[in-house]
Amino acid sequence: MNEKDGNYIYCIIASNEERDFPLKGIGDRGDRVYSICHKDIGAVISDSPVIKYPVSRKNTIAHQLVMEEVMKEYTILPVRFCTIAEDNGGISSKDRIKDKILKERYDELNALLAEMEDKAEFGLKALWTDIDLVFDEILETNKEIRRLKKKLASMKGTEGHNERIRLGGLVKSALENKKKKEANKTLNILKKFSVDNRINDTFSDRMLLNAAFLVDQSQGEMFDSCVNELQDVADGRLKFKYVGPMPALNFVEVVIKW
After folding, report:
1. Helix count and strand count (H, E) for the chain
2. Helix 131-141 / helix 143-153 crossing angle, nearest 10 deg
3. How many domains is the chain built from?
4. What distance lies between CA 99 and its chain's CA centroid?
5. Residue 94's closest CA among 161, 172, 9?
6. Is pLDDT above 60 for 106?
7. Do 124 and 231 lie in a common domain?
8. Which end of the chain is more exposed for a tag (fewer CB within 10 A), N or C?
9. pTM of the model
C-alpha cells in the first residue's frame, strides 16, 4: 500500500514572504523546505509521507537543523516533532495548514512571535570534574557522616547493616543539598542576563545543573561573558557544557491537533 503524502511542519515564523530554504527535509527523500504564509505569519514545511517518524537522533537532528537555520533569518515558534498535515475531505494539506493553523490561530501565534522576537535559547550543563573531591568535601564538613563512617570502619562482615544503609542515605542527601546550593549560585548569576529559565533533570552525580535560558539578543554578549567568567572562577573544579543560540524548545512549543 502506497503511503499518503502530506506536509511536515517545523516551525511558525514571522514572515509574509513565501520562499524556499536551502535545506533538506526530514526523512531520506531530500524534500525541499519552504514556507507558506497568511498575512505576516508563515509555516515552514516540507513534503513528507504521512508516517510516524521515530524519535531517533537522526530525525530529531533533522527537525532541529531546519529550525536552527530558519531562525538565523526569522523569529520562530517551534512546532512539536512529527506534526504532519494530510489531505482531508478534498482539502489539501497546505490549505489545512493555512486554515487550521495560520488563520484560526493567527492572534495567538502573532502574539507569541512578538513575545519571542530577538530571543533564543541557550543551554548550560554544569558538572563537577572530580566527584571524589566532592565526596571528600562532604566528609570534611559533615560530622555525622564522619562519625558513622569511622564506626563502620571498625566493624566486620555483616555487622552494621543498618548503619551502612543510613550512611548511604546521609551521603545521598548531602550530595543533593550540595548540588542544589552550588547550582543555585550559578543560576542566580545567569538569571540576571536572561528573560526566563527552565531547570531540567540531571543525569548523574557529577551533574549539578542542567538548565535552559531564554536570552534576549541585547543581553547575548553579557550572557556569554558571564558563562566564560564562571568557567574561569571554577578553576577546573567545574566543567560547563554551553550551547546556543537554539530554538526556544524549553519555552514555547506549538501543539497542533487536527
Report:
1. 7, 10
2. 100
3. 2
4. 30
5. 9
6. yes
7. yes
8. N
9. 0.84
**142-154 pLDDT, tens per residue?**
887 777 777 776 7
Each residue of 41-77: b (16+ CB within 10 Å) or e? Answer: bbbbbbbbbeeebeeeeeeeebbbebbbebbeebbbb
Cell numbers at 81, concatenated: 516533532
Question: What percent of the chain is predicted at pLDDT more than 70?
Answer: 97
Residue 136's identity, in one-letter code, is D
DSSP per residue, 122-174: EEEEEEES-HHHHHHHHHHH-HHHHHHHHHHHT--TTTTHHHHHHHHHHHHHH
Gap between the Cα atoms of 123 and 177, Å rounded: 23
**Res 160 pLDDT > 80:** no
Question: Does residue 1 register a pLDDT over 70?
Answer: no
Cell of residue 95, nine digits: 490549505
Residue 135 β-bridge partners:
none
Residue 255 in domain: no
187 & 204 share domain? yes
Spell out the residues 6+ positions from residue 205 whose beta carbon is closer than 8 angstroms to its own. Answer: 131, 175
Considering 66, 92, 116, which residue would you say is the last residue of a domain? 116
239 and 172 in one domain?
yes
Among all chains, which residue has been given the C-alpha cell 538569571? 191
Which amino acid makes up residue 106?
Y
**What value does the mean pLDDT of the chain take?**
90
Q: Report yes or no on 252 lying in a domain.
A: no
Task: Verify that 108 and 176 share a domain, yes or no.
Answer: no
